[in-house]
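Subject: complex prediction, re-run

Hi both,

The earlier run crashed halfway through, so I resubmitted it with identical inputs.
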Amino acid sequence: MSEELRLVTCTAPVNIAVIKYWGKRDEKLILPINDSISVTLSSEQMHAKTTVTASSTFLEDKIWLNKELQASSSRLSSCLEEVRAKARQLEAPAVNPDWKVRICSENNFPTAAGLASSAAGYACLVSALCQLYGIKGDTSILARRGSGSACRSVYGGFVHWKMGERADGEDSRAFQLHPACHWPEMRVLICVASDTRKKTSSSTGMKNSVQTSQLLKYRAEEIVPKRTLEMIEAIKEKDFSKFAQITIKDSNQFHAVCQDTYPPCVYLNPTSHQVSSLVHQINNFSGRFVATYTFDAGPNACIFLMEKDVPKVLGLLKYFFAEGDEFVRGEELPMEEATEAETSKYSVDRIAGGLKYVICTRPGEGPEVLAADQHLLNNQGEPKFMQ
Ligand code: PMV
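This time it finished cleanly. Structure:
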């Protein structure tokens, strides 16, 4: 190959919604029926990493995800086509949008754990492609076409996805409310539940909910608009009690909608319920909001709390749900072994191995462009893992 390939590598973070997106008003454009708010997590502990390149010599688009060549999916190709269409509008795109692409992507956390991998993955793909073509400005509208929640992962810190009103979706995009440094004491514990059962995908689940749940209609029209404003205020004021209460209520309402869906989509497992119960009891015994939880379309609790409270909460999670010793991953944070006097107060079922491990992390920044030594593709556009 004579020409020098232009390669771009980015990382993009995971985000966790504290006001949930559930339900589309347009399946193709991925337009939501309500606003949502999320916290972007640090890329240090969990991220997607993607290298992209394009060449006149490539005969077809090729995508490797976690070292496996992917069959083309409609989501992936519509996302790719949207980015190309945007690149064609540029006066002088850095790379010809008609050339075929090579994309190699991997996550530094287990995809099988059911964590928000598609959000990080699509945000990363879109960030890398926009960098490749020289597309500037907001990228959340493009990321949204891959996976709705991905539009929030193109910004760091605290993020608001405004549902928008237009039929073409051009006003359905994410905005950063505050960067991660706005609330430096905040920490996040991702409680990975041992559960490998196949769940209803979020796309199928939300489609069924839109068709069958009257509670979802009520939620989207009556609850979320007001709650969104309250959450924006709680985050602005760093009012953890308010933040915690809204987060819990919104997660539980989302799972109530899932239960109200016909057929119901059940994402929580017995450990999920015990983790929730533990958090409520910790808060009650402490006489204040120490921690808050939220669950996406899976059994893993995501707990938000302040740094000073991490040792106690980690100790209790370990006592009630750990099996082996290697329970804590991610950031090294101190843990306080729970005493008998403490644990005996709790009415929580002990489920040894109910949690595989807990990932300690914190709010973080948005996508980043990495240096050339981080490329996942070589100068011929072949994945380095195949060498
Ligand atoms: O973006 P999707 O299609 O993976 O949907 C995500 C839905 C939830 O994670 C349950 C909620 C949210 O707002 O992230």
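The chain has two domains: 8-179+370-386, 186-361.

- K.
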